[in-house]
Write a structure and sequence with these properties.
The complex is a heterotetramer of chains A (about 350), B (about 230), C (about 160) and D (about 400). Chain B is α/β, with parallel strands linked by helices. Chain B contains 8 helices and 5 strands; from the N terminus they run H-H-E-H-E-E-H-E-H-E-H-H-H. In chain B, strands 2-1-3-4-5 form a 5-stranded parallel beta sheet. Chain B is elongated and about 60 Å long. Chain D has 2 domains: about 60 residues, no CATH class; about 325 residues, Cytochrome-c3 Hydrogenase, chain B (Orthogonal Bundle), CATH 1.10.645. In chain D, helix 4 packs antiparallel against helix 14, helix 5 packs antiparallel against helix 6 and helix 6 packs antiparallel against helix 11. The chains are: A mainly alpha (about 350), B alpha/beta (about 230), C alpha/beta (about 160), D alpha+beta (about 400). Chains C and D meet through strand 2, strand 3, strand 4 and helix 3 of C and helix 1, helix 8, helix 10, strand 6 and strand 7 of D.
Chain lengths: ~350, ~230, ~160, ~400
């Protein structure tokens, strides 16, 4: 089925985009409720039922705030920096398959997918590598030393953790023999999920990918770029109103996308058993639900870690990356290559 | 200290764009209501926490009272915040910083004076180094008396602020809250009074500033205090 | 609380300053009054004899009809016995006394505070600036001649 | 005696240790240092203080703390209030443990005047001081982990837990004194408020709750590898430097000095009980953290031991406790004494015979343990990175109300 590219974008892109924006907003409400329950509190409870409208109140309030540009700031950079991370997040979403079904030929076909890129993994890794640029722009343009320190940390951390992330992503690539995320899911649908089909190594690769994603998304215990207790508010220290809101939204989006990617690469994406034989629509709905549940569980675990752990120091963070994660990733890749070439998988 | 605080009726350009859109005036009232509701349910606090009241302010954020219920977050940077809570004694050395942080907050913004030290200086008000009431340097919307006020009283003050915001955004003119009874007014007037404006205009607030960079600080000679015009105190 | 000095310390002090520390009998319960010249030497001697913990320094202004006088009291503590000892030095209208910074690093801030509030200068101090008040403040608040509500622009 | 002598007459030896007043001009000009200002309003400065840091990358080359942003001139105020009126003033110094402040002041006056305190009052004071120590250390634990773990993170969770226990302790104090925060319950010669009916039972219930939750905190702190990594070997203050700086309390004991005024200069009822002093030798952030955690256990034990054996009798040896001129200090008498508060040695230097016909002190100088702790910062910070600043500052536990007075 070939559609007009514009229509294609509208039909597939808009629902995904709106859905993800809704997820981002909901995630911020949910995180506040979740953390409150962890801390013997009630959490947001007044605006809307169970305070569920709170993110919208925050967003609307941010829209009303005055837009301040600090004296001495680089005005252009300061203005465009908040837009970039949102764009990058949305672009990342384009290659994540959110559902699938068994087609007539007996293969797993992707369903809710904006673009089935052949080099999906490369795309994901390169775009998420770009994510440090807007943060660096924001930190540099703010003309604030805290923001500058935070930006330097962001770049160091982002560039370093890119490497274990790539190495972890290589494991499913080698096993499935494909760079497309959709076909990777299809491989898992027939051969079993990546964490199980490759004993131990698959699980370790998932852990590596998960840790690197935590660092890429700047979550505790790797959240030194925003480290409120020492750097006040990190790179967004000088941003007011909706601009700071965009950065905060991006954090949720980035976390969500990282969870979705990990699900697609290691937990079989939208695949679940007992689907074969159902009507295609029912399969798509069920597999989309399965994808959402799996992603949410990873997402929850990220916030669980966030609200119960402390943060590393910047040099310890680098040490962890270069002394442990990178060599570990290399070993994992070698193990995978050996087992694939010996035909164990 | 550069910002003129007299202009408190800040209007966001959003309103302007909306009105100029075709048919925009129709949605204006409902938009107004929406924005009003969102603003008063999402007050982010900037804790200007200097002394004892800060601990009680932390208690208000902790689990027994849980300020988060009404959507307040405590953010450490003034750029993200809507309400400055002055919790504790403000000294002459600290006052220029309070003013600067207040100026760094984006409009619309509100001020809360928590505790009798912030309101009038309490029993420190006569001492050489204490500012007799933070309302002499920044506009204060809500006073929460007490030494320190209970965490519950902080919530009551927050509700009072929400009422005032609702009235303010609905276009009603609201009277300035007076200081609580028996909290003595200083010789200099509170924020917005003629004498206070004069003190600010003549750079006297500036003069008490200490940049203190290891002996190379920028020093401004202290101007003698002007006798208040037509006032015996 | 002033506790009796151990015998070796008492003997060493009596050998050095016999008029202040007599070999027998009680010391002044208000703290022995030591000549200002001997301030540093006394502290050094006490540090040698185990008074290692720097506790505090207190300067006081005593206005008299003849002119201002100041007293500087220094408190040290022996960490092995837990007992404190203090002595006083009398200064004139232009109060200058030797700093204890070379002996005790903690004297840095304590002496800055007393300089700030009382106006006693500590000779040899590496960084004698105001500690509590803004650096352009005039006067020393804890002097008796300083009114508690001294005008300061623009508040009073 | 030659008076006055001039600065030029004084020649002093150079200190043997490294001087923190390093002249940056003499450093390598190509180092290109960045000066950054933490405070006076910063989420982790525990109040209003300011540290100016010169950074080489993220490494601290020089640190200069500034205080005085909360200087309220209390010592001047004390010179015009009478001895009885002073108690509520000193509540506001160390606002995390007001009870021990009151105690330090009143014990100073009592020792100066040679007043006897009834045994019942001394027992009450001991129990109150130990409960206050638990409350203060709990708040310290919460803010310390808040600094290390972030206000949006695990630290915030632990802070909420510690506030749960702290609220229980404040309830107990409210039952005793009627006030939640600033109590004004000590007076010269004893106490103002007698033990209300049911108070010992309430204290026991509260202590049991705190004791039950201690393993939770220990698991979250000792069992957290990140906290151990962040604190071990950071901010070392060795024994000599700690003594020279005049550190006291847990900070001094973490540096290997076995000095606790509860045991060495007993006040209240500490001469009747045994106090096990927690000492560590490393002098780093972890040691200070460890000492405080162990002190909380010890305080729980002491409260449990004393709460059932409060003797009967009067609570104050002075009759009219509410008359401001009831107590007069002897003119010209000078006196220094100190007690152990949660932060260390809180000393009071009193000179008697001031205003109000001798009922006010002529001069009152407090010896705040927090000021000494803060003066350790230029030594402890150099060579560490920016994230360590908050860990070191948090471990020293300064309360700015007490630093600036």
């Amino acid at each position: 089925m070939t559609l007009n590219p514009w229509l294609h974008g509208l039909v597939y892109g808009l629902p995904v985009l709106l859905g993800v924006m809704g997820v981002g907003a909901l995630a911020s409400w949910w995180e506040r409720k979740f953390s409150a329950r962890m801390q013997n509190r009630i959490g947001v409870d007044v605006f809307g039922p169970f305070g569920v409208l709170q993110p919208f109140a925050d967003a609307l309030k941010m829209l009303q705030k005055e837009d301040l540009v600090p004296r001495g700031a680089d005005k252009t950079m300061f203005f465009i920096a908040p837009a970039f991370p949102v764009v990058l997040c949305v672009v990342l979403l384009g290659v994540v398959p959110f559902a699938g079904y068994w087609d007539d030929t007996g293969t797993w076909a992707p369903a809710i997918l904006i673009s089935n890129l052949d080099i999906g993994i490369l795309w994901v890794l390169s775009v998420s590598g770009l994510m440090v640029f807007p943060l660096w722009m924001a930190g540099w343009a703010s003309n604030n030393k805290y923001a500058l320190l935070a930006a330097m940390r962001t770049v160091a951390q982002g560039v370093s953790y890119e490497i274990p992330m790539v190495l972890a992503a290589l494991v499913p690539v080698i096993v499935a023999g494909d760079l497309s995320i959709a076909r990777m899911v299809a491989w898992q649908a027939t051969h079993g999920w990546m964490v199980f089909s490759l004993p131990v190594v698959g699980f370790l690769a998932f852990v590596l990918f998960y840790l690197a994603s935590l660092a890429e998304a700047n979550r505790i215990p790797f959240d030194i770029p925003e480290a409120e207790s020492e750097l006040v508010a990190g790179v967004i220290v000088e941003y007011t109103g909706i601009k700071s809101g965009l950065f905060i939204l991006t954090e949720y989006l980035h976390t969500f996308i990282a969870s979705a990617l990990a699900t697609a690469m290691f937990f079989g994406g939208g695949h679940m058993p007992f689907l074969a034989g159902l009507p295609a629509i029912a399969q798509i709905v069920l597999s989309a639900t399965a994808m959402l549940v799996k992603t949410s569980m990873l997402f929850v675990s990220i916030y669980w870690i966030r609200w119960s752990w402390y943060r590393f120091r910047s040099d310890q963070l680098m040490e962890l990356c270069w002394y442990y994660l990178v060599p570990g990733g290399l070993v994992l890749v070698a193990c995978t290559a050996v087992s694939v070439s010996l035909g164990w998988v | 200290m550069a910002v003129d605080e007299s202009e408190r009726n800040f209007e966001h350009p959003l309103y302007h764009y909306w009105e100029n859109m075709p048919g925009g005036g129709i949605g204006m009232t409902s938009l107004d209501r929406l924005l009003m509701h969102s603003a008063r349910h999402s007050l982010w606090f900037f804790p200007m926490a200097t002394s004892c009241c800060a601990i009680e302010f932390m208690t208000a954020a902790a689990s027994r009272v849980d300020m988060d219920q009404v959507g307040t977050i405590i953010r450490p940077t003034p750029r993200h915040c809507d309400v400055m809570v002055v919790a504790g004694t403000i000294t002459v050395k600290m006052a220029p910083r309070v003013k600067k942080l207040w100026d760094q907050m984006p409009e619309p913004k509100w001020g809360i004076a928590m505790g009798s030290c912030a309101i009038c200086g309490d029993f420190y008000r006569d001492i050489y180094s204490v500012v007799p009431g933070v309302d002499t340097i920044i506009p204060i919307d809500v006073y929460i008396p007490g030494c320190p006020p209970n965490a519950d009283q902080v919530m009551v003050g927050l509700q009072r602020l929400q009422e005032k915001i609702a009235a303010q955004l609905a276009g009603k003119t609201i009277d300035k809250d007076p200081r609580p009874p028996n909290m003595i007014y200083p010789a200099i007037g509170t924020h917005g009074d003629a004498r206070q404006t004069e003190a600010t205009a003549t750079g006297q607030l500036e003069a008490s500033r200490n940049l203190g960079y290891g002996g190379q600080e920028h020093r401004v000679p202290v101007a003698p205090p002007k006798p208040p015009a037509g006032d015996a105190t | 609380m002033m506790s009796p000095l151990p015998a070796p310390v008492r003997a060493a002090l009596a050998a050095r300053w016999p008029e202040v520390f007599p070999a027998e009998g009680d010391l002044d319960p208000n703290g022995p009054l030591v000549p200002a010249d001997s301030h540093y030497d006394l502290a050094a001697l006490l540090k040698e004899h185990g008074y290692l913990l720097y506790v505090t320094v207190v300067a006081t202004h005593f206005p008299t009809p003849e002119g201002d006088t100041f007293e500087v009291a220094t408190v040290l503590r022996n960490p092995s016995t837990g007992k404190a000892f203090w002595w006083r030095c009398k200064l004139g209208a232009d109060p200058v006394i030797a700093t204890l910074f070379p002996l005790f690093a903690g004297a840095d801030w304590q002496e800055r505070e007393q300089f700030d509030l009382v106006g006693v200068r500590f000779a040899g101090h590496p960084d004698l600036r105001r500690l509590m008040l803004p650096e352009d403040w005039e006067g020393h608040p804890l002097r008796k001649s300083y009114a508690i509500d001294t005008p300061h622009a623009p508040w009073r | 005696m030659t008076l006055p002598h001039r600065e030029a007459d004084v020649t002093l030896p150079k200190p043997a240790r490294k001087d923190p007043h390093v002249d940056l001009e003499k450093l390598d000009a190509a180092a290109d240092l960045m000066a950054i200002n933490m405070g006076p309003q910063h989420p982790s400065t525990h109040g209003v203080m300011r540290i100016k840091l010169w950074l080489d990358g993220e490494m601290i080359v020089k640190a200069v703390p500034y205080c005085g942003y909360l200087h309220r001139g209390v010592e001047k105020l004390c010179e015009r209030l009478t001895v009885v009126q002073l108690t509520p003033i000193v509540d506001k110094h160390d606002y995390v443990s007001p009870m021990t402040n009151e105690q330090a002041l009143n014990i100073a006056f009592e020792r100066m005047l040679g007043l006897e305190v009834p045994r019942r009052a001394r027992y009450m004071r001991t129990i109150i001081a130990e409960i206050q120590r638990i409350a203060s250390h709990l708040l310290w634990l919460g803010t310390f982990t808040l600094d290390i773990g972030g206000t949006i993170g695990g630290g915030a969770s632990l802070m909420m837990y510690t506030f749960r226990e702290r609220e229980a302790i404040l309830d107990v104090f409210e039952m005793l004194t009627g006030a939640r925060f600033h109590y004004n319950t000590h007076t010269v010669g004893g106490q103002r408020h007698d033990v209300p009916v049911g108070w010992p039972a309430a204290v026991k219930k509260m202590i049991d709750a705190v004791d039950a939750h201690m393993p939770e905190y220990e698991q979250q702190c000792y069992g957290n590898d990140v906290l151990v990594l962040r604190t071990k070997g950071v901010g070392v203050i060795d024994r000599e430097l700690a003594l020279e700086l005049g550190l006291s309390g847990p900070n001094l004991r973490a540096s290997g000095v076995d000095l606790d005024l509860r045991r060495d200069e007993p006040f209240s009822a500490y001469d009747e009980i045994k106090v096990n002093v927690a000492v560590a030798t490393d002098g780093d952030v972890y040691a200070r953290f460890d000492v405080r955690m162990r002190e909380m256990h010890e305080s729980i034990r002491i409260v449990r031991e004393l709460i059932d054996s409060i003797p009967e009798g009067p609570i104050c040896s002075q009759k009219p406790v509410k008359v401001p001129f009831a107590v007069k200090l002897p003119a010209g008498r000078q006196f220094y004494t100190a007690i152990e508060t949660p932060r260390g040695e809180l000393g009071t230097y009193v000179i008697g015979g001031g205003a109000e016909k001798g009922a006010a002190p002529y001069r009152l100088k407090f010896r705040p343990p927090s000021l000494h702790a803060m003066s350790a910062l230029p030594y402890a910070l150099v060579g560490h990175t920016v994230p360590d600043v908050v860990a070191i500052l948090g471990s020293l536990d300064p309360i700015l109300g007490e630093v600036d007075r």
